[in-house]
Amino acid sequence: MTVRHRQRFAWLRRLAAQQGSAPILPKQSISGRALVGVVAIMTFLVALTTGAVLLVRAAANQWRADLAREVTIQVRPLEGGDIDAAVERAAALARESPGIAEVRPLSKEESARLLEPWFGAGARLDDLPIPRLIVVKLAPGAAPDLAQLRKSLSEQVAGASLDDHRAWIDRIAVVAGFAIAGGALALALMLAATVLSVMFATRGAMAINRPTVEVLHFSGATDGFIAGEFQRHFLLLGLKGGVIGGGAAMALFVLLSLALDGKFGGATRDQLGLLFGHHTIGPLGYAAIVTEVALLALVTAATSRYTVNRTLQTIE
Questions:
Q1: Residue 22's pLDDT is what?
Q2: In what order do the strands lie in the sheet containing 160-163?
Q3: Nearest Cα to 124, choosing from 135, 109, 136?
Q4: What pLDDT digit, counting tens, does each position of 43-73 carry?
Q5: How many Cβ atoms sit within 10 Å of the Cβ of residue 226?
Q6: What does the chain look like in DSSP terms, one character per residue?
Q7: pTM above 0.85?
């Protein structure tokens, strides 16, 4: 913007003030407040989606790590066989294998309790052929030969089998991948909705102030200067809405973290733990929310500038 253009712009502003006209872009307007609300809602949803993705990823990684540190030996009762002797023999084979840290056979009562979610508490399961389980914990950093252990069990213990949880680990990985992909798609859709909202708001502001914009345009003001006025205005609106939405999301995650820490009572913690797991978004999550607030404000400003430049091209 040259000095001559600035002088002309100042003269036009003084002329508009003398005529009682509103400024080019009033700081307070119904459309401006509506856009702040839209950006706040979108930022809140984006932050919630980001936090949910981080929680799902953390929970999935924890489940996979827990499953990878253990294997399970299952001993099925056979007619005429001694199940207790078979369990002891299978446990001994596991203890003799390299890379094994701990071997713990579950009692018949402990194995029956694992079936309570399906049969209910207090159900009589004495007549059912309930398999006996042996929990085998792997030594950290070790590489046990599970194939050899599986072979030894099949050869020396009738009805014994080894489950390395590989199928469950793969399923968790697939589910977590779908959840993360869904979160990324939701973020993209929310960003697209924000861009469209800003475009409509900018076109509305241009339509309302079109006479003033045309006067500036024909008096020599460059398109960059006019677009910059709109850009600064919508940048402030985007920052305001982003801070409101992002701050609300961060407050919600702080409350969730306090609840998981037991600040609101043990029952609340247990229920939330079932829903979200005992994980929080951590510093990385809060940093991501702050980044998203800034990103949405920049997207708002850039979209406004682009829309103004496209509109100014139609003014001859």
A1: 44
A2: 100-105, 132-138, 70-75, 160-163
A3: 109
A4: 898 888 888 888 888 878 777 777 778 888 8
A5: 24
A6: --HHHHHHHHHHHHHHHHTTPPPSS-SS-HHHHHHHHHHHHHHHHHHHHHHHHHHHHHHHHHHHHHHHTEEEEEE---TT--HHHHHHHHHHHHHHSTTEEEEEEPPHHHHHHTTHHHH-TT---TTS-PPEEEEEEEPTT----HHHHHHHHHHHSTTEEEE--HHHHHHHHHHHHHHHHHHHHHHHHHHHHHHHHHHHHHHHHHHHTHHHHHHHHHTT--HHHHHHHHHHHHHHHHHHHHHHHHHHHHHHHHHHHHHHTTTT-HHHHHHHHHHH-S---HHHHHHHHHHHHHHHHHHHHHHHHHHHHHHHTT--
A7: no
Distance between CA atoms of 69 and 228, rounded to whole angstroms?
A: 58
Cα angle: 154, vertex 157, 159; to 5 degrees: 75
Angle, helices 223-260 vs 166-208, to 10°: value is: 140
Average pLDDT on 134-148 reads 81
User: Tokens 């040259």 appear where?
Assistant: 2
Cα separation, 187 vs 183, whole angstroms:
6
